[in-house]
Amino acid sequence: ILDSMRGRMVAESDHLMMAGIREFENKFANASRIIIVACGTSWHAGLVAEYLIEDLARIPVEVEYASEFRYRNPIISERDIVIAISQSGETADTLAALELAKSKGATIFGICNVVGSSIARATDAGAYTHAGPEIGVASTKAFTAQVTVLTLIAMIIGSKRGTLETTKLRELMVELETIPAKVEEALKLNEQIIGISEQYKDATNFLYLGRGYNFPVALEGALKLKEISYIHAEGYPAAEMKHGPIALIDEQMPVVVIATKDSSYEKIVSNVQEVKARKGKVIAVVTEGDTTIPAMADHVIEIPETSEHLMPLLSVIPLQLLSYHIAVMRGCNVDQPRNLAKSVTV
Ligand code: F1P
């Protein structure tokens, strides 16, 4: 299975007319550090990759906002690999960040959706996501495709470095093959989410909480809501709540908690208790069959079970649907949100 996946990635990256992941895997395996540069949703995909690569391949990862990194004086060595992620492949900040890293000797791997885009052309190697055109300004399926490519990269480097055991690798590959069917299942939540959206469409603030692999998903859920419905939303690691945001919680505050069954489940149970103790309204995204968090939450959204490494591919879907329906109910143009450009080229 791994070989066929590798084949697929190489085939996809052929469009770049440069090396794909297979040609690049030795370089990845010997990297002293991986620096990910991106903006917006692509940056959130990069954050998921930080968990994946550190967990499966044991290489230190830094995830940088390209818009800050490009103006810093970063310390970069020739054994660093920079992964530049961009749906459009035209984001000026990401392009400038990768050019800065390149000028300091780093090797650049691109993950882009648009074939032949400026970022794709500026990289040393890469993989296209081929998620199809993003019709709206806000990235959705591009996120799923970016996370999928990054998962494959983490698995390939992990197997090459021997940090990912063959049995675990096989399990993950088999599980990855089930994801498209589970995404279809998650999309059936649409009707339920329309009902929840109806109740919260007039909220003025939202909080999104997640831990581990679901922390970047919390950030992405909040960003989608801000981008298309213009509701103020904050995403936080659930454990950070007690360091400030907890002061915001009252009976007016909808709190979306991504609390699927994973290694941080017990901890997030206590975060939900903290929110309920302050009368916040909890919209919980849980794993099918869970009973503990559903007993405390105001609304329960059940998604299929999968490995925690792959969970962002599923847990982001109800959050995208929630933002979409709230935005439509508020009369917002979900494809062309105000003030936002498809590719930020300045
Ligand atoms: C980055 C990004 C998107 C966001 C909006 C503005 O774009 O921040 O994530 O949804 O479209 O640009 P990209 O570099 O991934 O094309």
Automatic annotation (TrEMBL):
Catalysed transformations (reactions): D-fructose 6-phosphate + L-glutamine = D-glucosamine 6-phosphate + L-glutamate
A single Gene Ontology CC term: cytosol
Role, per record: Catalyzes the first step in hexosamine metabolism, converting fructose-6P into glucosamine-6P using glutamine as a nitrogen source.
Species: Pontibacter oryzae
Ranges that cross the membrane: none
Top EC class for this record: transferase
Keywords recorded for this protein, A-Z: Aminotransferase, Cytoplasm, Glutamine amidotransferase, Repeat, Transferase
Active-site residue list: K342
GO molecular-function terms, A-Z: carbohydrate derivative binding; glutamine-fructose-6-phosphate transaminase (isomerizing) activity
Official protein name in the record: Glutamine--fructose-6-phosphate aminotransferase [isomerizing]
Domain of life assignment: Bacteria
Ranges for domain SIS: 24-163, 196-337
Enzyme Commission numbers on file: 2.6.1.16
BP GO terms, sorted: amino sugar biosynthetic process; carbohydrate metabolic process; fructose 6-phosphate metabolic process; protein N-linked glycosylation; UDP-N-acetylglucosamine metabolic process
Record text on subunit structure and interactions: Homodimer.
Subcellular location: Cytoplasm
Main location: cytoplasm
